[in-house]
Each structure stands twice: as C-alpha cells, then as structure tokens.
Amino acid sequence: MTNYNYVISDLPIYKAALLDNWDSVSQLFEQDPELLTKQITYWWETPLIIAVGTNRSHSFVEKLVERIVAVGAKDKLFVGSYGGNNPLHYAAKVGNTTAAKLLVEQNPDMTRVPNPYGNTPLKLAAWHGNKDTLKYLLTVTPDTSLPGEEGSSPYTGVAGGDLITLTIMAGFYGKSDMLRQVHDTKQYHHLFSAQPYIKRETFHVWVIKLKSKVGFGDADVALEIIESHPNIVLENDRNGKTALQILALKPEIFPSGNRLGFWGNFIYSLMPMKKSEGATGVKVLLRVYNKFATRFWSALGYMAPSIKKIHDTKVNNNLSRLLVDRICKIIIEKVDHNIAWKILGSAITTAVEYGTHELIEECILTYPGIIWYDVGGFYLFLAAIKQRQERVYNLVYQMSGHKVFASTQVDGEEDENALHIAAKLAPPHRLNVVTGAALQMQRELQWFQEVQKFIEPSYEEALNKNGKTPRMVFTESHKELLAEGQQWMKDTASSCTVVAALIVTMAFAAAFTVPGGNEDNGKPLFQSKPTFMLFIISDAIALFSSATSVLMFLGILTSRYAEADFLYALPKRLTIGLLSLFMSLAATMIAFSSALALVLEGKVTWIAAPLVIATSIPVCLFGLLQFPLLVELVNSTYGKSIFHQQNVRRIH
User: Which domains does the chain have, with CATH numbers?
Assistant: First the structure.
C-alpha cells in the first residue's frame, strides 16, 4: 500500500504556493533542493503546478522557476501530475498567461507537447475559453512537428480540427488586442517577427483586408488562426465536425439570431461599419465621417453599457460573416470537388436544422451546386420545409431558379411529396417558437398553405405508400395539437369571460348610481362639472367594450374548432376580445377615479395625482401580463407573413 504521509508533511509548501508566500518556504528549498520539483499532493502535483493553478501566485512561480533553473533541475521543470498534465497545461487551463510566458522561455518546444489525452496547451486554452492565453500561445507555437514525431503539428489533423472548433465554440469574436496593434506599421513588423512561420505576403494581405472590412479595428481570434493556417478549416475535430459546421451550430452569432427588440434593432441599424471609400474625391469626407461616427458611438457606449453591447453584437456579426466568407473561399480554392461537397454539404445540413440561413447563403454563393446536397434524404429546399425553417425556405426560394425541380422530388421510401412533408408535425424546437397550442396550429396551417401554393396541383391529391393524401396526413399528424389548441382557446376564453362579465355588471350599475346622487328632477347633481362628463364617457366605453369582449369570448367557446378556424377565425376573435377587455379595464379605472375625484373635490384637493398613479397600476399590470400574447396574436394573424422577400443575392 502506497504511503501518502508526505502529503501531510509537505503541507507548508502547498499552502505557501496557494498564498503566494515564497519567503515562508524559501529556507526549506535551500536545505532540500529536491522539494522544488517534488510531487507533494495526493494527485502528484508539484509546487510549480499548484502555484500556476492558482493564477495569482505569480511571484511564487517566478522565484520557483528561477531557483529550479539555478540548481540545475531545468529538466524537471515540466514534471507532470497524476493525469499527465505539466505546468504549461495547467497554465493554459486556468488562463495563467504570466506563468505560460515564463515556462515557454525555458522550453519553447513544450507548447507542442500534448497531455496523455492528446490535448496541447493551445487546445486547452481554447477549450477553457482563456482568450489571452490562447492568443499568446498562438504567437509561440510554430506549425511544425516535434523532433521524431512527424505529423504531430497542433494545427493539423484532429488536433487542428479541435483547435479551430473549440476557438469558435468559446465565442472568441471580440476585439483582438494582438491584431489591433497591426494598425500601427511599426507594431505590425514587431508582430510579424514574433510569428516567423507566417508568410509576409499572406499576413500583409490579411491585415489590409481586415482594416478595410472590419469596423472599429477589430479582428477575431478564429480569423487569426485561419489566416495563419488555412488548411485547418479542412480538418475534422474529435467529434468529426469542421469549423464551418460549428459556425452553423451558432445562429446567435449572425444578424438573424439577434434578440435585441425594437429599439435595439433600431440602434443596431444606425451603427456604422467601415466600408469601401469609393471615389478619390470623397475619401476625405468619408474618413472624417468614419472618425466622427466611431468616436460618437464609443462615447455612447461608455455612457450606456447596453449600447456598447449592441455595438459588440454588430461587430461580432460582421466578424462571423468574414469568418464564413474566408472559410468558403479557402475550400473552393482547393479546386477539389470532394472536399467542397463534403465540408459545405455537412455545414448546410447542420445550418438547416438550426436556421443559420446566412451561412447557407454564403455556401450557395460559393458553390451553387451544393443546393442539391442530400440533407437527410431531401434536397435543401425540402429539408427547410421539414425543419420549418422559413428563413432558409425563403432564401432558397429566392436564390435558385431550380426550386421547381426540387419541389417535384418524391421520397422514394414513403412515396411522399413536398406537401406530405409540410403536412407532418414540425420538430418540437420549431413548434415552440410561438406561444400556445392555438398559435402553433396556426403556424402549421400557414406552412401547409404556403407549400400548397407552390407545388403542382396534382400533388395535392397524391397518395403516399399508406394511401393518404397530404390533407389526410396533416389531420392525422396534428390531431393532438388540435385538441391542445382547442383546450388552450377554451381556457383562455373562459377566464377572460369572467372578468369581462364582471366589468359589464359594474359599468351598467354605475350608470344609474352616479356620484353625488340626483336632483329632484332626476338630473345628476354634478352634471355641469367636466369631471362628471369624463365619468359618464369612460363608464359607457367600459360597458360597450366589455360587452364586446364577452361576445367575442362566447364566440370562441361555441366555435366548432375545425382545423381551418385556427388559421384566422379563432385568432381574430381572441385578438378582438383581448383588445376590448383591455379597453374596458382602462375605462373602468378612469371612471372610478373620476367618481372619487368628484366626491372628494371639496375636501381633498390633492386627490388627483395619487388617483392617476393608482389607476395606472392595474392597467400596466394587464399590459405586462397580456400584451405579449396580444402582440404575438396580431403579428401572427395580421402582420407580415413569415414567407417574404429577404435581402439576398440571387443565383440564376
């Protein structure tokens, strides 16, 4: 049995490494130099590994490295732990760039040494999202194999695939300090000297391109890697995915994935990105404008963090577009059909599922024939229908004149055409993009009708191998959703009917029990006062609108709930009912406040202000709770169709 008593006896060294307290153990190291590189924990960690892992004991690390080198134990500097990770692996994991620089100075070859699991420091830094450490390691890790280990470059094979995919997955789309220095010519040459394995011409063209295309002097770490090592985009990672596939998994880094809201999108549209300067005569004016715009938005970003977030989003979207564009160009420049077909095809297969239509657009523009890639047994156009990705559907519909051929495709196994595919229930993650079973049913009907307009008339009554037409398939596939939509409509209408009926009762009673009472001739006592007229008008509005609301909700409760009713009839009634209910609630609050103001007018003169505040509370609460549903109802029923023209470049 192994004796681990040394773990207890070496605790002072462990604590000193954790607390960055070199002075407390320096005497111990002088008396016994072997302690400098001894494995002192249960997991065989050395004092250097412990100190590096804290990412704050920088003084301890520096002095420890100096002492190890001074006593001639440099060969033991990279002694590993039980898991086989040496100090540089730990530095990459925790993002300790300071320690990484010290260690690389002692042995630059260690940047290419993997741990027992095949993970180099580069890969570990990307895996754990340590951007600064990754950027430093990129400058000191050459694209060469270790002596005696041919083909072990960290930029090729599975190692290279892992590096670029992990970098993208980590979301390294922010500002790159290293490339921001490129805007200074002197710093450019300094940077170039630190990366001798990059061709000068390639790097220079890269810098010029980024300076002209990327706004505010930003660049992306993934772009740095790809420009330095273009072939890395051809490599598969340990999961068999390429860089382009990983980008397809991240629709949120493209403009269509932004969730900024109305005002956020408005500000987003105003933010400038640097463009080509055009004719010589306007260069000066454009330069001045760009400088002013940059400073203006930078100042706003400092004052309002939310604006800075929107700015960063736009920069990241721009970088994502550049990244996809660069990868596609590298692939097509190989002039290898198998490579292009495999990488672009696998990317659009993933992009269809996740709705990353910007990536699909770039792939089609790069290689138009990829539209015929087999996406799960279907061509791209039919795959978009199956996955209910309207943006991809619109894109392919607009970009390619061959859609008519794609629409006539019939599934060989099931003998089903495009309308049969549209008739099936949408995938759960696409079904839940709208609220409630009723609106989900409406969205499914919209898809079915859209595809019905496009296909050949004969396909509407075509039978699949089970002898069912598309309409039969739709009815069978949506049986449960139809029942859920019916129950959702009934529950919503029942709840709202109770509230509307109560308002009708109160509004009717208030009309005959006016504040202040009546004179002997039956006329209201406060009839001549303006506030009384406000009371009467608001009470009348409350009565009429609540009665309308009750009628609409009763119309929902007594509906036949046929499939076609969910497309327009039921959403229309629910929309009118909710609008009327909101109006009646607001009018009731106004009527109550005006009545109270009339009664207390002579005694409490300041009653108006708190009444306005009190009146607004229930109205605001109703708005917060019900308005999102109301807006979604209006947009889905009366708003812009999900099938519309997109701003894309067309391929004939």
Answer: 486-638 (1.20.140)
